[in-house]
Amino acid sequence: MRAVVPGLGPKIALGFGALGFGVLGFGIWAVGTSNPAAAQAPGLDQVDNGAVVVLYHRFGESDFPSTNVTLEQFEAHLALLTSGRYAVRPVPEILAALAEGQSLPPRTVGITIDDAYLSVWTEAWPRLKAAELPFTLFVSTDRVDRETPRYMTWSQLRELATSPLVTIGSQTASHLHMAAQTPERNREDILRSNARFERELGSRPLLFAYPYGEFSLAVRNLIEAEGFSAAFGQHSGAIGQASDPYRLPRFALNEAYGTPERFALVVETLPLPALDITPDDPLIGPENNPPAYGFTVPGTLGSLNGLQCYVGRGNEARLQRLDRRIEVRFAAPLQPGRTRVNCTMPGPNDRWRWLGRQFYLPER
User: Fold this and answer.
1) Contacts of 102 by beta carbon, 8 Å cutoff, 6+ apart
2) Measuring CA to CA, how many Å separate 263 from each of 82, 135, 234, 342?
3) What is the CATH number for 224?
4) Domain that holds residue 23
């Protein structure tokens, strides 16, 4: 299967609209040509194949299309993942291999699900179990404690936790906007969540997902200090050996961005390794809005021909290349909330290298 779907091109991979944040406009700037053959050193993807991690929320809940995939879409995803072309691995196994500098199998994929909606239990779990596909479920404990009809119960979570296919991760207690909270408030929420996991499941999770994908440098450091081994956002991109384990990307899927064509493209992506990413803190304030975003691509990647960056939410910017250094300059201050920037470049065998970044500006 080819990663580029005829007639669609690379724009299908953007996914700014996932989780309800619509594409209001793009700025596109190309460096050089878009010739895949000229873009890569031969065989480089075999050195760091990386992995793609996908993110689901709801299954077959058509009244929530921005966080839902239809059952037809989900079954098409599973059919592709079990076709023999992909190596679906438990997320902890993927992260351990990357941490140890081990090369993953080509087209390694991890599956994550956020929020423990009831449709995970009624729709996703039977299908994943039948396909013998591992996944990680991130849970906000307050929502389970409230025993609302649309969420799973602790009894159901306990049953999932006994399966070798399932890893339980944390998404705090109250699913709060962590980047806008004090360190004390965030830590209290995490400790309360850990206590509930220990009481109900017998242990606390080691994997974490930032609610709404929002985090700051202080939040990132808190998650590391509290003993989590890795943390995921909701910005797009493939994971590689250069990835910060506490800023890991995922491709969010919903009805608009969960078509079989887009799914086939994103599970083929490769890491776009980046060093010296600035600013280090994705939390934006009045003093640094708009941020001066930049990164350096290692020389081992070869030519940067075809590298492009895309900005969501109607902003415009320009791209500057200073040898291996890429600088993105926004034309206007970022709007309150989340702004995503995706940079891609052609890779080998019609695949795409991908680096995503999410900035967060709190509401006043």
Assistant:
1) none
2) 14, 17, 16, 17
3) 3.20.20.370
4) 10-42+274-361
